[in-house]
Amino acid sequence: MNRRAWMAGAGAAVGAAALPAEAATSAKATASVKPAIKDSKLDAMDVTALQAEMAGGRLTSQALVRHCLQRIQAIDQRGPRLNAVIQLNPEAQAQAQALDAERRGTRNAPGRVRGPLHGIPVLLKDNIATADAMSTTAGSLALAGLRAQADAPIVTRLREAGAVILGKTNLSEWANMRSTRSSSGWSSRGGQTRNPHVLNRSPSGSSSGSGAAAAAGLAPLTLGTETDGSICSPANVNGVVGFKPTVGLVSRSGIIPISASQDTAGPMVRHVRDAALLLQALAGPDARDTATAAQPASLPDFTAALKPGALQGARIGVVRHAVPTQPQVAALFEEALTVLRAQGAVLVDPVEIPNRDKLRSPEFAVLLHELKPGLADYLKAYQPDAPVKTLADIIAWNKANAPRAMPHFAQELFDMSEATAGLDATVYTEALATCRRYSRAEGLDALFAQHQLDAVVGPTGAVAWPIDHLLGDRSGGGGFGSVFAVAGYPHLTVPMGVVASLPTGLSFGGLAWQDARVLALGHAYEQASRRRVAPGYLRETGIQG
Fold first, then answer.
1. Could you state, in order of their start, the residue ranges of all structural domains in the chain?
2. Residue of 265, 238, 239, 241 whose CA lies nearest to 251
3. pTM of the predicted structure, to 2 decimals
4. Which residue out of 187, 207, 230, 475 is catalytically annotated?
5. Residue (of 337, 311, 302) closest to 323 by Cα position
6. Residue 125 catalytic?
7. Among residues 184, 206, 208, 251, which one is catalytic?
8. Using one digit for the tens of pLDDT, what is the confidence trace for 99-127?
């Protein structure tokens, strides 16, 4: 959860972190922390290329898992010490061995490849339930050491697709829904995750570890979750691809929740094609998640949609009110628009997302009301043996263990949620109706219809701010992701460039169930621009703010 959109509704202040123009363009980066491992050809490959290596007998899943574990040891646990991975799966090598054997076959049975994810390691955010040797904790010590009694349906889908569950990533504790003054990427169980580009900068959140791990190449695939910004914001500042699908395209059962109205899981990877491949495995109905009942009768082939020339003739609205306070990001955005025009896109410039300023307070009310019952339902279904059964129990546990659980910030959002009156309360039902009205029919739906748009684009947000456990996050703002989060519509971010070694991304937003189209447009931009850069593991940038 990224709290920028509704922080004012919580009564907290968020300061801008604009980079001085002179400093940002002239600053010399300071020394880096070199990992004790060199990048190999595997680190430049997407999933399709890795599968080709396996098909040709030049690579095995076991070797790929070993390679990932070596990178985690050298980059995450030592050297730069990103602290992105909260737990490794002791069963990963055995899974890889079994999948290699399945690929080879036997004398009496031919080999079988389940699909494009066969033998590919994936890291999961630590709010996604797995019924294995790993815990599922949302980064909280209150759930430390506790295992889920069943896989989340999306984990079942990944296993069936042949993916190797490599481990879990750290996150902003409770997906950043505990305090208005939290530091993104910090959890009481996992500590502070660091941005691999500049180590004293925030990885954003709440899918902090997934974003940092993707950027550092700790695994070919990582999975995050989002309520509002938690996939796209960390993807933005870590310089990777992040995709928040239409709510209901991917099951949310077995994911420690914030909001039944807005939660979803989604890919965080280095290539748009990998996001499409991962989404193909994740998407599908789930009888336990009523939001998936709204899916179209047949889902598209997300990878087949990634066709050359996808931008030709596409009508794209330019959302200039999404430009953050940092002028260097604005300049990169103009360069991105030039690329889009060169690829044949028809830019409608500018467009304004109507009624966006009417969403902050009602969204905040919806999240506060949905958190309490959602947590209780999850704990009952997936972790019934946990010592905490309700939000009230979690609040009490944190108070009783305050030195360990709350050394940096409190739990005022938990307290506010506990004080809500339930999902039948008028304040909740009216807030939910307001959110849907102004984000959908009188928001994005109206905008797209008025201009006959295929998508809108804008900067995803500002570059990463310094990690600050005393004052918490202080983003420089920008972006339009909150409207798409409230609407439940698809939002993709793709690397757009760097400012003083700090990455920033370009957002593509579309209407409900237009996920394939949004991915296709973002893929075409990615292939034409090639703006992703490898992290430098710098100690700092040498600039302020």
1. 37-106+113-529
2. 265
3. 0.96
4. 230
5. 337
6. yes
7. 206
8. 999 999 999 999 999 999 999 999 999 99
